[in-house]
Amino acid sequence: HVVAAPKLLSIWFQGRRELGLIMGFFSMSMTVGVYASLFFLGRIGEHSGSRAAMLLLVALTSCGFLMMLFLPSPPFSPSAERAAVCFRPLHLGLAAWIFAVAYGGYNVATEAYLTFTPDYLVRCGYGLAAASAVVGIYAWVALGLKPFLSAFLRKNNAVFYILVASLLFVLSVILLLTRTLPPALSAGVLGVSMALAMPAFYTLPPLMF
Fold first, then answer.
1. How far apart are CA 80 and CA 4, in angstroms?
2. What is the C-alpha separation between 155 and 87, in angstroms, rounded?
3. CB 146 within 8 A of CB 25
4. Which pTM value belongs to this model?
5. CA-to-CA distance for 152 and 162, rounded, in angstroms?
6. CA–CA distance, 32 with 144 (Å, rounded to integer)
């Protein structure tokens, strides 16, 4: 979904100003998924055990697989077809590798936050369900901001989006670890960061190459 879906969207909306907004809506779907897992799976795991939570994930994944069978094919693009044949990663240029490292680093950092923060909050005295709900606040913030922020996303400001998002992520971690303010504030800052970063990360490759 991280590689093929943005590529399909870039082909469907090639040359249109709505591309940034579309990528914003696409990244919203993953935000909803992570929030739902934090909010619901934490409660299911706390009351029914991990087995029930995992069985629910298997059922949802199976439904997603069946839905992909009905996905329409993107419009044919001869230039995209030629580009797909010539896969030469060593000739992509420095910008592509810098972008790949930035995207990988941001994903590792945010996934680590979402993975370990509930455990950290449990150690601080929160219940598992409450800790998951606190971290899930980021999703409400991201969902509310992504349509607005991604509507202004363009090639000339996408890098600025990513830089600001990275600084906000660092701030969210500092707020979490200092424990001087409620952890909900840290999760909210993370939501702003992801509302800026993810649409920009998905939009930049089609605009760069």
1. 13
2. 24
3. yes
4. 0.67
5. 14
6. 11
